[in-house]
Design goal:
This protein is mainly alpha-helical and about 180 residues long. The chain has a single domain, classed as Up-down Bundle (Fumarate Reductase Cytochrome B subunit). About 65% of the residues lie in helices and about 0% in strands. It contains 4 helices and no strands. Helix 1 runs antiparallel to helix 2 and helix 3 runs antiparallel to helix 4. The protein is elongated and about 55 Å long. The termini are close together.
Amino acid sequence: MSNSSPSERYSTAQRALHWLSLLAITVAYVAIEIRGDMAKTHEWRPFVTQVHFWAGLSVLAMVIARIYLRWRRPTPAIVPALSPLAARLAGVTHVLIYAVLLVQPVLGMFAAAAGGKAIIVPLLGIALPALIGKSDALEDRFEEWHETLGELFYWVIGLHVAAALWHHFVRRDNTLRRMM
């Protein structure tokens, strides 16, 4: 049990959404890598594609909830406080992370729709409405943007993890503990 007061940490909901987002992002990346190794005729390929879609939609839903909670609840202070430059860099990094987590699933939804791929709601078996009509040219463009952003996000994730570890082991502040 932690001796931190709630004001020294993010709320339980914020922490849960953070770590569940990590899980969903991991599932999305793993599913698309597995799909890439499958033959287009493999019987499991449509299911693995849907798993990728479901993980992406989960990320989108969670980031919307995370943004709402971040807007509604004060951010716990970092102790000891950051320099103004470090605080600004942290803010820019968080905006970048949230932007990618919003844009990436939407690009994926546009790519799927343009490719004529249905996104099936788990357990209900119904398809989400397509955001746009089928178009090979748009599918290629949205898929390229989606893939490129996904590859760039590896670097953003790496930066986020490196910063968290730097705060914890080098700076020895409470940044990581606020999310645990």
